[in-house]
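PROTEIN DESIGN WORKSHEET
SECTION A - STRUCTURE
LENGTH: 403
TOKENS:
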């Protein structure tokens, strides 16, 4: 059983502890899912999570659009990931895929959420392109205004839920200005003529991913989310909310790895004792536990800060995502090492965790990108502080001259 003492931390309210208990019970009864058909598994997971009411957390209620509770999203992802990576994936994409609609959609656009929040429609976030991953400002898929419509041409790739989503939120270049200021966001229903699934992408931890084609795809201008040229701002705002939840998923993987490592170390015979008798193994377990608590503190600090009304938590979310995903990779690697040969046997829990964790250090901003975000915030703050000191110095000199 995973450690849940963190739920007593001051970041949480009683509703969060009740949610943690409810999703833990659901996971024990429904996970892991049957992964033999990934598409079918994801569709069923979304349907089941919707039926159970958990998908209501992923998007605002169109009838009462209150802000998303990021702490609840993190608890959901942490718990689901600890039980089954595909369960986490299915839940997470319903939130990320509709994030732009939740945050910036019109009341009419938000009617889509009545379907995604109950698991009737799967959603997707279509941002990445073959030649632009973390460099969002350089996307090339074009959206040309034509009367009351936009016509889209280009490609997107590495799109989660690609091929099974009923709704895509697509970011395209509308050209109001160069770079980031010339991008807009659009709602594209999956059955829109001109949208094609060019390729299904196989990855080390099977998830539904695809490369999408847009060929003279025509949608009404009313499908644009927010203003023309606001797509970059919208995409960054969505990632600001959901980025720390990626760290939460990594935390779930790490907690499961520690559970498996402790179980192995205390039962695997070694001479007259067990692996856990070795000080080196004890050291590994201690490091794993320390890194898990440090990750949790960063994740729930970021989530709490956002829930308390902060307009942006780019720095906090970047720290949480980078540290938690990188440390989870190391924690899982230690768990594999403690398992020895069994750790690399196909189908072993830690072997599956080893494959699951790697992508989290890449998507929604690679680890190196998170470090750049943190550094730029730090340097920007230092620049503001230096400017304030210079201004104060000039004021003091002026006061001295007139005294």
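SECTION B - SEQUENCE
RESIDUE ASSIGNMENT:
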């Amino acid at each position: 059983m995973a450690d849940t003492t963190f739920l007593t931390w001051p970041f949480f309210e009683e509703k969060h502890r009740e949610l943690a208990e409810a999703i833990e019970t659901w996971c024990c009864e429904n996970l892991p899912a049957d992964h033999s058909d990934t598409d079918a598994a994801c569709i069923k997971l979304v349907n089941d999570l919707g039926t159970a009411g958990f998908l209501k957390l992923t998007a605002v209620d169109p009838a009462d659009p209150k802000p998303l509770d990021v702490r609840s999203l993190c608890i959901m992802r942490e718990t689901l990931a600890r039980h089954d990576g595909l369960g986490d994936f299915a839940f997470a994409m319903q939130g990320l895929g509709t994030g732009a609609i939740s945050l910036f959609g019109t009341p009419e656009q938000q009617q889509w959420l009545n379907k995604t929040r109950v698991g009737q429609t799967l959603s997707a976030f279509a941002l990445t392109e073959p030649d632009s991953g973390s460099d969002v400002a350089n996307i090339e898929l074009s959206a040309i205004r034509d009367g009351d419509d936009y016509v889209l041409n280009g490609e997107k790739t590495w799109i989660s839920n690609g091929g099974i989503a009923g709704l895509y939120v697509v970011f395209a270049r509308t050209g109001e200005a160069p770079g980031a200021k010339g991008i807009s966001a659009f709602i594209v229903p999956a059955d829109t003529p001109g949208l094609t699934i060019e390729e299904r992408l196989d990855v080390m931890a099977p998830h539904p991913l695809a490369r999408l084609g847009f060929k003279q795809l025509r949608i009404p201008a009313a499908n644009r989310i927010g203003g023309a040229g606001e797509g970059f701002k919208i995409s960054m705002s969505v990632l600001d909310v959901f980025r720390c939840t990626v760290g939460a998923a990594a935390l779930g993987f790490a907690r499961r790895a520690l559970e498996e490592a402790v179980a192995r170390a205390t039962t695997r015979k070694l001479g007259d004792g067990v692996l856990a008798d070795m000080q080196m193994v004890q050291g590994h377990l201690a490091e794993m536990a320390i890194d898990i608590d440090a990750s949790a503190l960063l994740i729930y600090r970021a989530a709490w800060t956002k829930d308390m009304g902060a307009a942006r938590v780019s720095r906090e979310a970047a720290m949480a995502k980078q540290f938690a995903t990188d440390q989870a990779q190391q924690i899982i690697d230690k768990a594999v090492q403690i398992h020895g040969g069994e750790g690399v046997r196909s189908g072993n829990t830690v072997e599956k965790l080893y494959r699951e964790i790697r992508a989290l250090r890449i998507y929604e901003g690679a680890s190196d990108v998170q470090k750049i975000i943190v550094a730029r915030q730090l340097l920007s703050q230092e620049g503001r502080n230096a400017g304030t000191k210079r201004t104060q110095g000039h004021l003091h000199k002026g006061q001295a001259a007139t005294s």
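SECTION C - NOTES
The first strand starts at residue 123 and ends at 126.
The beta strands are 123-126, 142-146, 149-160, 167-173, 183-189, 195-200, 209-220, 224-225, 269-270, 273-274.
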